Amino acid sequence: MRSVQEIRGxxxxxxxxxxxxxxxxxxxxxxxxxxxxxxxxxxxNVSSPQLIEGTAKAVPGEPSPLxxxxxxxxxxxxxxxxxxxxxxxxxxxxxxxxTSKDVGSFAIQSFLFTPSADNWWMALVGQFxxxxxxxxxxxxxxxxxxxxxxxxxxxxxxxxxxxxxxVDKSLYAVGFFSQLSLTTDTSLLFNVENHGDKVGRxxxxxxxxxxxxxxxxxxxxxxxxxxDSKGSYWNVPTSIxxxxxxxxxxxxxxxxxxxxxxxGQPQAxxxxxxxxxxxxxxxxxxxxxxxxxxxxxxxRKPEKDSKARKSVEELDEYxxxxxLGEPHAAISGIVGGTCAxxxxxxxxxxxxxxxxxxxxxxxxxxxxxxxxxxRFSADMFGSLLYTLQLGExxxxxxxxxxxxxxxxxxxxxxxxxxxxxxISDIVKGRVDREMNPLASPKFNLILQQQVAGPIVFRxxxxxxxxxxxxxQLSRVEDVMFGLSYSFRLLQSGKxxxxxxxxxxxxxIELRLFEF
Length: 515
Hints:
42% strand
């Protein structure tokens, strides 16, 4: 992981080996395919401005999130350190609806300070939501003008009340982050944040260890924030996970296994829901998954070797992003299986838990669906991806058009069962049944188009193709829009601003050597 000093000045040194690995990975469009296996586990982070940390967990057992929604590999404080130098006044804006309506959605983050040593660093990040302050000041100004119109003088209590609005804790949030490199292969990350408009603090610790052919991750959070496919957020009081994943090559067999434990009843944060996801209920889950990947180039125009870059003047001859520097067409696929065993927890989800609408009010309830969580489950999944890229992303105009079209079957058993229902309905007559969202195949489409120079517009969408047995028509489930600015000096680095209409959120991120 790069140090704060390297990112802080925006002068990350070019690293030939990293660039070569990135170039090799870009020849195989596997990043989108691996969402299938990643979404089966609880360590799939998605970007979210709800927390200063900038991430939330995707609810396992649901359709995989859009590729644009997956979080950056560079942790948030290091992103903010870079963005503070790239954006005016060092302020990073975001749009994140709050549970307290008077606080507003618009927020501004600022990177405060970051002491560091050879194997350790810490960072302090502040956040400010100005809507409530502006509204209150406007009221105070109107009240003051009304006082002057009547010929009265401002009283000390009025001035004191005016100043008190600036120290309203609901306007502010603060986050503390730290990383300690125990060895060259082991790192410990810790962060805690407190939001003035919410009750309690959020704490997370993560231990990362790299083996020769595996990555080991031990993570604990209290509480943990999850987001489902409909954009609803859930708080799980305590979540602990241990994941071991193999280093998957461009093609071939990969696997992962782990343990996940939840404690406490999940709580909906931003909207009442008709049912809590079964995978968020208390209990211990042992999981394992495997996958086999294969990619075939239909055609490809290789880019020049990145080692030929000898001076800044020669940079214009190369792509703004080494991962988008080779026009090509390719077909890739992944097929795999998962199995899970649950221990402990409630056998049935017939229960009622509180739904907290804001800091001051609670008591609304979420009635859970009368479903049972299977003690043991096994399933298959598969994805097929077609990629077409035109242009080398070198010129200032009309030099990049890219389409990624992916067809997903998240649950082979649900898909086959739905097909059997369709045949039964044809032979014996239609029967009303509850629809399983995983039975419907998903079509994911990513469009990228160069606007001018290093600026690229991107749109990600997920379309449900419908369940034949339910005669359900195809519909758009989710869509996201993004605008990125790539830096040639970083070889594969860009500032990305995205907007999610489903979640009504906007966020600015730094992404390095990522799709």
